[in-house]
Fold this sequence. Notes:
The chain is mainly α. It is 61% helix and 0% strand. The chain has helices at residues 9-27, 35-69, 74-96.
Amino acid sequence: MSEREPPDPLARLGERIDKARAQNVRSQPAVGDRSATQQGLAVGLRIGIELVVAIGVATGLGWAIDRWLGTRPWGIIVLFFLGVAAGMLNVYRAVSGISAPVGYRRPGEDGTGKQPGQDPWDEDEN
C-alpha cells in the first residue's frame, strides 16, 4: 500500500484559481488606456442625444403648429410619433454605421460589381 495521501481536490482548485487570477490581472488593459471605454461612451451619448433631440424638435414643432393653426392636440401627437420614428432611424444609422444620405450608395454596393456610371444591364466587359 501507498503511504502517500491522496491529493486534496480543494488545494488543487485553489491553485488553479490563483493561476487564473494571475493571468486575468495580466490580460486587463492598463489604467491609462481608456480610449476604448471613451469611444463606447461617446457612441452611447451620441445615440441618446440624437433620439432625445429628434423627439424634442418634432414635439416642439407640433406644439407651434397647434398654436398657429388651432388644431390642439393633433399636431403634437402626430409630430411626436414622427419624431420617435426619426429618432429611431437615426439610432439605427448610427449603430449600423450608415452615414450616407438616403438614396446614395458607395461604389460597388449595388450588387452588380460594375463601376459607377456603367450600365448594370450591360453584359459587355470592354
